[in-house]
């Protein structure tokens, strides 16, 4: 009878590909990737709504070991998806991936010290010596209760993360619910293509310009030179590292936070100074960074269009011909776009994870998820996370690669037979999270309700230090953070 596989990877977006390539680099080749969609790509496979593109610069929002001839400073979803699938093909990941295989249940067996996976069709997979969860936390769409399932609306209704290729905004009366990052991108395209656009805003967000543009032919030629490419990447990394040092971007008394607030106010006044009522409606009453700051060159410009109306109210109900807002006013629409974000506070929410002594992860995390450096949590041996609790920082892909290296080095020990069980040190996990929460308490992230928080109000997603401090902490954790048997 064949022995257990070395490792299962759940998810094939940036973090899943990072995990698989890290395993390959460590000499671990017996792994299986599980993907619930019909292709590799994760976020950039499903988020294909009009205008979808990344907020980070292409050079830094990519793998350090796979440079690319980017066409834009900020790549759109098509270029990012092609990039990810190209990396997957280069590293032979398609042959190891079970597509259209969503994971329903992951269970630990103490007697064999292995994990078993049950997919959504009820099939069993495994056993596996380890599991790497690479599903992130932006994967469960938030949809208003009255818009779930079948509705009376006779037009098209779609969340940005479930966009259908056949949908078109051309000549349509478009309603956009939300004012976050995906919403501003949709509004820009809706203004360009649609006959009219109504933006339903519960609260405004702080907004800064992106500076997105196509690279010139000369820039692309220079970028093909590795020293130039990596210099630009390192310069971006250094800028983000300094920006987040001592949480300067997330404290009201931080130099970076003050600078960004002034820049956001100036940008709003520059774009809307001659439209005082719009400027008032678009001015948040919370600190900059208390919610995710939106980055866009085009949103304010779109709102100035005679085709676009900002409705400063929530949608309260849906009708056959459109929606009713919170004041009772009816709005006729051809298409409703839900740019309402994700249930981001519930990590690993797409499948059930059962660890030692029958402990269920979602129950252990009730009120707010926590983990040691986001990669391991007590009672779940040989279980590693990428983009886990409190690891949301910029640049994201740098975090993914570091977490993948950590997991791959631990899996190598399991694969070689040196050990059969690796757990996080509980006392260290608890000490780390107490100090982390004290630090987070000094930031603006707990100021207002946002997706950074769990149901108890605990900040569960954000990292309150610089990326370099995280990389150093994770390197030390390889030696001092775990127990092995």
TrEMBL record:
- Molecular-function GO term, any one: monooxygenase activity
Q: Which UniProt keywords apply?
A: FAD, Flavoprotein, Monooxygenase, Oxidoreductase
User: What Pfam families does the record point to?
Assistant: FMO-like
| Signal peptide bounds | none
Sorted alphabetically, which Gene3D superfamilies does this protein's record hold? FAD/NAD(P)-binding domain (3.50.50.60)
Looking at the keywords, is Flavoprotein present?
A: yes
Does Oxidoreductase show up as a keyword for this record? yes
InterPro entries attached to this UniProt entry = FAD-bind_Monooxygenase_sf, FAD/NAD-bd_sf, Flavin_mOase-like
Which PANTHER family did the record assign? FAD_NAD(P)-BINDING DOMAIN-CONTAINING PROTEIN-RELATED (PTHR42877:SF4), L-ORNITHINE N(5)-MONOOXYGENASE-RELATED (PTHR42877)
The Swiss-Prot or TrEMBL record describes its family as follows: Belongs to the FAD-binding monooxygenase family.
UniProt-recorded name of the protein:
4-hydroxyacetophenone monooxygenase
